[in-house]
Write a structure and sequence with these properties.
heterodimer; A: mainly beta; B: 163 residues; mainly beta; 2 domains; 5-stranded antiparallel β-sheet; 3-stranded antiparallel β-sheet; 2 helices
């Protein structure tokens, strides 16, 4: 944990104010399933796990949602998909992969049966619609993280 | 494969703009002048140093006048820290104590140094060791630590009501 006050100012009423940051530098192991998923992202490959009912989970589920068993079977999933629903983010915050207004969207990737939450670089809120096709934009310097997909771009001229 | 992603960093943090408010700011201003300024509750007359959030824990009243308290005080309770932890900057074992400054009714927590941890005791009289003036900030960290004054211990009855 870290925190501190090094820069302060005094407001008109005589109150001291100072920036205060409370942060925790967590680091964690990811386990075998997420390890394979993240390693795949680093190589611009998206993989999901296959459940007992045949559904493909992306991001991969570690355990079968129905039986609770470890999932070990994998399926390749496309880096293209369809917007299921979305919400406009007019004011990006630190840590967002895009620093201009964008959409948060649930995306059904081709070959997957669950949805991925990610950013869509749509430009304007009136340019995005449910059902539109999107394509992953990969990071120039992958690190083995979900942000190796910077965002999704609207696939030009192809509203579904 | 040894090159696989095995761990990830997931730092979290919140950035605040902290405002001390007028009732705590006189205390902070005092610290920048090397003084301990607390506040008195207008109802029960207890002196808070530090002045909490500007209200009395007992009455709920807004604290009133500034009260400068003594630089010397008495250790009421203490804890010997023997456990290393991430970010620790002080060599263990060290003592964290609640210090009742003369003229205050509430203890404040600070570090005790310049004495063997085994020799620290309830009732021990202590005084602050301030950092060099040019390093002062509106913070209790202006005091590096407290150290024994060498005075005789305060009798238990003198601080028994402040434990």
């Amino acid at each position: 944990m870290s925190g501190g006050t090094s820069e302060y100012s005094i407001a008109a009423d005589g109150s001291f104010t100072a920036p205060l940051e409370l942060s925790y530098p967590y680091k964690r192991t990811v386990g075998p399933i997420l390890s394979r998923f993240l390693t795949g992202l680093r190589d611009q490959r998206i993989e999901g796990t296959k459940g007992s009912d045949g559904r493909v989970h992306v991001p991969p589920a570690e355990f079968d949602p129905i039986t609770g068993e470890h999932l070990t079977e994998w399926a390749d999933v496309a880096s293209t998909g369809t917007i299921v629903t979305w919400s406009w983010q007019p004011a990006p915050v630190e840590g967002n992969t895009l620093q201009h207004p964008f959409a948060w969207a649930l995306i059904s990737l081709d070959g997957a049966d669950t949805n991925v939450l990610h950013a869509v670089d749509a430009g304007r809120a009136d340019a995005i619609k449910t059902g539109m096709r999107v394509t992953a934009r990969w990071a120039d310097e992958p690190s083995g993280s979900i942000t190796d997909i910077v965002c999704f771009d609207l696939t030009s001229g192809s509203p579904a | 494969m040894s090159d696989d992603v095995l761990r990830i960093r997931t730092p979290i943090g919140i950035k605040y703009q902290y405002s001390a408010g007028p009732r705590v700011s006189s205390h902070l201003l005092g610290l920048m002048e090397g003084r301990f300024v607390g506040k008195r509750c207008p109802v029960c007359e207890l002196v808070y140093m530090p002045p909490r959030n500007g209200t009395c824990a007992k009455c709920g009243a807004l604290l009133g006048e500034d009260v400068e308290v003594s630089q010397r005080g008495t250790i009421t309770t203490f804890c010997v820290v023997n456990v290393p932890f991430l970010g620790q900057t002080i060599k263990i074992p060290y003592v964290s104590a609640t210090i009742l400054l003369d003229g205050a009714d509430m203890g404040m927590q600070h570090l005790i140094q310049e004495v063997d941890a085994a020799d620290v005791r309830m009732g021990m009289r202590v005084e602050p060791v301030w950092r060099p003036r040019e390093e002062w900030q509106p913070s209790l960290e202006n005091v590096m630590h407290f150290r024994p004054t060498g005075e005789p211990d305060a009798p238990f009855d003198s601080y028994a009501g402040h434990l």
